[in-house]
Amino acid sequence: MKKVHYEEMLCKSALNHVRGMPFKWSLNPYKGCVHGCHYCYARRYHKFLDLNAGEDFSGIIFAKTNIATVLRQELRKPSWKHEQVGVGSATDPYQPIEGRLRLTQQCLQAFADHATPISLITKGTLIVRDIDVLSTLAAGPGCTVCFSITTMDEELARRIEPGTPPPAKRLWAMQQLVEHGIHAGVLLSPVLPGITDDLSNLEGVVKSAAAHGAQFLGTKILYLQPGTREHFLEFLESEYPHMLPAYEKLYPGPYLPKKHQTQIQDRVQRLKVLHAMESVAAPAPNVERQLTLML
User: Using an 8 Å Cβ cutoff, are 284 and 144 in contact?
Assistant: First the structure.
């Protein structure tokens, strides 16, 4: 098992003002992520710390140990308008170190105490520990939790997202939240062209999400910005060398050509109809779009 170095840090602010998303604020208790998803768009942020987007991203994790204290100070300000906050927009808030540090848990309690709605995205099953505070948020200001799942194939998942809990366990965790009245669902995202975009793989996720009570399902296609792009192409060269030329052609820039995106989105939409995902409770306004933008 790869050794991970954890470094404590103090933050000056907890809430980050963001643009280009339906919510104005985000919160990330950690920087870097041991889940090591090769496609993760947040890899590029480690370069801002003079670290690399490869091994450093999953091997050097920063924990903002004072984040809950700073957050409470910000939420107490008269200027705070109780707007929705996206939790985990740049790193998973439920990676293993959270079990010891409880930074995410402390922040959730602060949001509940100050009537602030949240949306949260994770691959971590540790979230079931916090069902009580999430239920309080759900019954009060609002709470949406989204589980990112790319495939139900455990072997494939270990290959493309090596440090994550198995997909079936993520769905189990989601189901626990739903049964406690928490608005939770699935992001089939990112879809990797030629790797996870076949009908069988997509249907496996949609069908399993429906069977576990997912209250919504969104999808987004892989995009490759500088930093993430270099790492992902290196991963392809190592694990899927026959696909490297195709990706270099399909991704001259960050995004897959629109026609290919539409084909995949249409495929997922048909599967949602087939498995009655369109008949379940609709997501709260902007939630699906909001959470897909976070990946």
Answer: yes
Secondary structure element (H or E) that encloses residue 121, with its range: strand 118-122
Half-sphere exposure at residue 21, Cβ-oriented, CA atoms within 13 angstroms: 23
102 dihedral zone (left: phi>0; alpha: psi -120 to 50; beta): left
Q: In terms of pTM, does the model score above 0.85?
A: yes
> 76-92: per-residue pLDDT in tens?
999 999 999 999 988 99
Strand, coil or helix: 73 = helix
What are the boundaries of each domain within the chain? 5-293
First CA to last CA distance, the chain: 27
Residue whose entry in the numeric block shows the structure tokens 């293993």? 96
Number of CB atoms found within 10 A of residue 280's CB: 17
* CATH class as words, domain 5-293: alpha beta
Nearest to 15, CA basis, from 102, 92, 110: 110
Of 38, 84, 77, residue with least CA distance to 237:
38
